[in-house]
Amino acid sequence: MPKNKTDNFLKAIKKYASAQKKAMRGEVKQLKSERVNEAEQKGIRDSQNLIRAKLHETRNANTALLASKTLEGQKKLYIERAKMTDDIFRLASDKLRDYAQTEEYRQKLMDSAKAVAELFNGSDCVVYINERDMVNSGEIKSFFGENTEIRADKTIKIGGVRGYCESMGIIADETLDSKLEAQREWFVENATLSVL
User: What is the pLDDT of residues 89-100, one digit of tens each?
Assistant: First the structure.
């Protein structure tokens, strides 16, 4: 019997060891499954973070490129519009120079001289006109005070009258040059130039 007890004891130990072995295998399998699951989740999170970072980096690079291209396009557009505006005003200036050769212009010149003279109210002043208009200087002077001086002004390219009355501290500009230049600002603000 003692042998039987020993056999039973060994069987019990083997059974217990077998149960422990089975339990440990189950725990190892579960632990392994948990670790694999954790590794997969971490891999997914890391991948998503990397994808987000790359998307953000790409989006920033594309935004910077788009901003650069937009700025470059706006600059080219601005230059082209400025060139178009200059061309339009050069043509207008040429037309006004042709107009300055007409009798209608001569009458307009006299009307401008009268308007400036009325502003100066008989005060002595200096009146500036285009060199080409000096042939009308006597008639222009007749609208002003006796001591008014008529001078040719090379800065008046198209025509008209500019007067300066020192005693009143007034400059009156009725030149076609200044009127054309005043239209440039209005034109730039209101013209809807399209560059195709």
Answer: 899 999 999 999
* Residue 195, pLDDT score: 52
Sorted by where each begins, the domain ranges of the chain are 1-99, 102-190
- What's the whole-number average pLDDT of the chain? 87
Three-class SS state of 92: helix
Q: At what angle do helices 2-99 and 176-190 cross, to 10 degrees?
A: 150
8 Å CB contact between 80 and 195: yes
d(CA 108, CA 173): 14
CA atoms within 13 A on the CB side of 42: 6
Count CB neighbours of 151 within 10 A.
13
CATH number of 102-190: 3.30.2320.30
The amino acid at 89: F
Instruction: Compute how many other C-beta atoms are within 10 angstroms of the C-beta atom of residue 29.
Output: 10
Phi/psi for 157 (5° steps) reads: -85, -35
The reported pLDDT for the residue numbered 76 is 87
Structure tokens given for 75: 């600059």
As a whole number of angstroms, the distance between CA 8 and CA 19 comes to 16
Q: Is 191 helix (H, G, I), strand (E, B) or coil?
A: coil
Classify 169 in phi/psi space as left (phi over 0), alpha (psi -120 to 50) or beta: left
Do residues 119 and 151 lie in contact, with contact meaning Cβ atoms separated by under 8 Å? no
